[in-house]
Design goal:
By secondary structure, the protein is α/β, with parallel strands linked by helices. It is about 40% helix and about 15% strand. It has 3 domains: about 5-115, Tetrapyrrole methylase, N-terminal domain (Cobalt-precorrin-4 Transmethylase, domain 1); about 120-225, Methyltransferase, Cobalt-precorrin-4 Transmethylase, Domain 2; about 240-280. The structure holds S-adenosylmethionine.
Amino acid sequence: MEQVIGKLYVVATPIGNLADISQRALDVLRGVDLIAAEDTRHSARLLEAYMITTPLKAYHDHNEEYQSGVLLKKLLAGENVALISDAGTPLINDPGYRLLSAVHDAGVQVIPIPGANAAIALLSVSGLAVNSFTFEGFPPVKSQQRKDYYAKWLKSPHAHVFYESSHRIVASLNDALTVLGGERMVTMGRELTKTFETIKRCSLAQLVDFVAADNNQQKGEFVMVVSRAESDLSESDVEIRQMLEKVLPIVSVKQASQVVAALTGQKKNKIYQLALEMQQD
Ligand code: SAM
């Protein structure tokens, strides 16, 4: 008889508001044999709120390697396991990589149960062009390294979303201001989905003043989106840029502008300017 092996469910949990959990997530958390959680005491509160009595097991940065082996054995022995983190989607700046890597290698079925994520929640309300974006978790803690980190987005055609801690939000925004300049548009998401949620879209200079002027705006959990370098670029401009990227290596700036203008129906002058800027990058 074929050995039945268990399934690993990777389950998103709320980032603040406990109601932000799907019916499917609740059904899975109730139905599995075991829930692997980053902080079992923290997750116990969520489970209590929904009267879920499934046993919890700690799985965090410090025991990831060992626990991955333990959990894999259980899965191979036929137990179903759910992985959750303290908030939001596991593995997005949260533990789980070792476990997922091991279970994939072992041929165990993995099933995502999607839901809350702070970065995606803010992107969706940022009011910035976010069709393409980069994400690198938290910026470095030291100021010089943080400035180098921000410098990567000085000319980036992608929006950049990142997390920041309340201990560093003021210093970090000041470093961003130094490197990216006061005009760059940003959206700050503070305490998303919670009672004192703030969503503020403005220039970096305005945001630095806004946060500095109000101690309450320096507390809680933060996620930020910095707009891409050309904050006035429309969707069609992105398309133009993509076309230019393809033709500029082959023909002159002038010819590239003519071709792209003909293909898009946009003004030649504007495309020419963009092509010149791209050549300087
Ligand atoms: N896995 C999580 C997710 O899906 O969003 C992120 C985990 S990361 C360790 C935790 C960081 O996410 C926090 O320090 C904060 O920067 C950001 N974050 C989490 N919840 C948030 C919220 N409600 N509002 C704003 N930022 C939040």
